[in-house]
Amino acid sequence: MSALLNVKNMTHYFGGLRAVHNYNLNIAPRQITGLIGPNGAGKTTIFNLITGIYTPAQGTITLENENIKGLETNEIAAKGVGRTFQNLALWRHINVLDHIKMAHYSQLAYGLFGSFFNTPACRREETRVEENSYRLLELFNIKQHANQLVTSLPYGAQRRVEMARAMAINPKVLFLDEPTAGMTPDELVQMIKIIKQVHKDFKVAIFLIEHRMKFVMDLCQHIQTLVFGEIIAQGPPEKIQNNPAVIEAYLGKEDLT
Amino acid sequence: MELLQYILQNLINAAERGSFYAVISIGYSMVYGVLMLFNFAHGDIFMVGAYIGFGIATLFIGIFAGLLPAPLIFLATVVTTMFLVSWVGVFVEVAGYRPLRNAPRASAAITGLMIGIIFETGVLILLGATRLSFPPLMKSVTYHVGGIYITNVKAMIIIISLLLMVALHAFIQKTKWGMAMRAMSYDFLAVPLMGVSINTIAPLTFAMGAGLASVAGILYGQAYPILDPYMGVIIGWKAFVAAILGGRGSIKGAAFAGYLLGFIEIFVATIFPSTLRDLIAYSIILIILSFKPRGFFGMEHSTKLRL
């Protein structure tokens, strides 16, 4: 199976602290991979390292066999890595539709000249982007909010806006950082449905950080458990669920006496 | 009736003065929105704009006077100057701010002060200390409408400034770069993840701010035709006051506060002796700020309140 995203021996330090150590990842096309682990294990750091917010001290990262380590964040995004944030990174006071339109930035080829004179080519591109944006809004069930500011939306809907925005860059792999954090049970069920739908419709690979076991077990084909920046166990969900090392990391050591 | 005329006359004068402040202060706000710092070289970019405008105007009048109608020469001067001075803006970003992008904000902010001093002394060395006089790009005509005097230069200053602001608004609302600029003022981190390079947006923002300032420079040269290397200092600081008063990073606020500043200055001058104008005008603004410390259109809370 050829890898879509491949990370080898990635290590990173924050000052003297070794945040991530010898991390390996292999995501096949259309695979859903989960990353679990206690707070402070370095999960979000791994996201930041792969998406170019930090550059790893050691190791290699390739997307479709092409090096992406050391590239600028915007270049990595344009190559096909989309992501959402644990604490929503939305733009207050910008409406939902513009969020999605904005995310088409790297697909818009028009130049300053074209936009100044509003050439037909420029208008065609704008129309295409608008249509595509509405399609995404519909899929994520936020079309009714298109012209509202994001701050006025319920929390679950804000999360869906962020995900729709990440999908608008047309990613090959989608990174979701705790997509259900702070959601009500209803919103949670809806989110699982949406992720499955996105996975099916866009044929995208997904890499997600999550705390809710039910969610991870339900969605992921492969799960990695990270503790103190190191993988202590990985495999299919049913194996992870019963792995003593994982249980220990999450629940503490079992007292057998 | 006489009082009404008096007020209208002063409103027009205030709109003219406010136009300069508004157009210049927008440049401060645009850069703040994108890079979270005020470009303190902006007043001196205005000055450089006026000088380059002076050069272009002299050149074009020399070549085209008599051949082309005056409005066309004026338009050509404005467009050429905007283009050239935009590159001055790009230069300031690339040489001054980019190397310090991750430096503490205070270090980045003083870069602007230093670049400003370099520009002032540069112009002084190149052109000497003699004051230059900006050639008139159109023959001044005074209209007398209902007891109010308005010159064509004044009308043009007000109209061109408004047109520039409308064009800027369209750019920021409609184009992909404009959307990226707006997005950056709310969340810096998520913008590159949309495939947008800060190294495109930042120089573009500086270029647009500088282009606006250069038009203000030409218009200023038409209203007050004396150029000197320090002409950008006071007007730059006043426009900066307008940018703060309007609300940090708010372009709408900068434009509004720019006009407000013009109105306060002119109306203070009609009541008090003109030597006291700035003293009283800026005391009023200080009082306004103490009631509205975030300015008129400042954000309630922003992730970016660092400076």
Q: Output the radius of gyration of chain A.
A: 19 Å
N-to-C span of chain A: 46 Å
Helix fraction bin of chain B: over 70%
The quaternary state of the protein chains shown equals heterodimer
User: Going across the major beta sheet of chain B, what is the strand order?
Assistant: 1-4
Could you provide a short overview of the structure?
The complex is a heterodimer of chains A (257) and B (307). Chain A has 257 residues and is α/β, with parallel strands linked by helices.
Could you name the key traits of this structure?
heterodimer; A: 257 residues; alpha/beta; six-stranded mixed sheet; four-stranded antiparallel sheet; 10 helices; B: 307 residues; mainly alpha; two-stranded antiparallel ribbon; 4 strands; 71% helix
Write the layout of secondary structure elements.
The complex is a heterodimer of chains A (257) and B (307).
Chain A: E1 5-14, E2 17-27, E3 32-36, H1 43-50, E4 58-63, E5 66-67, H2 73-79, E6 81-83, H3 96-102, H4 112-117, H5 120-139, H6 155-168, E7 173-177, H7 185-202, E8 205-209, H8 213-219, E9 222-227, E10 230-235, H9 237-241, H10 244-251
Parallel strand pairs in A: 3-8, 3-9, 6-7, 7-8
Antiparallel strand pairs in A: 1-2, 1-4, 4-5, 9-10
Helix pairs in contact in A: 3-6, 5-6
Chain B: H1 2-35, H2 42-64, H3 70-97, H4 105-127, E1 132-133, E2 142-145, E3 148-151, H5 152-174, H6 176-184, H7 198-223, E4 226-227, H8 231-246, H9 251-271, H10 277-291
Antiparallel strand pairs in B: 1-4, 2-3
Helix pairs in contact in B: 1-5, 1-7, 1-8, 1-9, 2-3, 2-4, 2-7, 2-8, 3-7, 5-6, 5-7, 8-9, 9-10
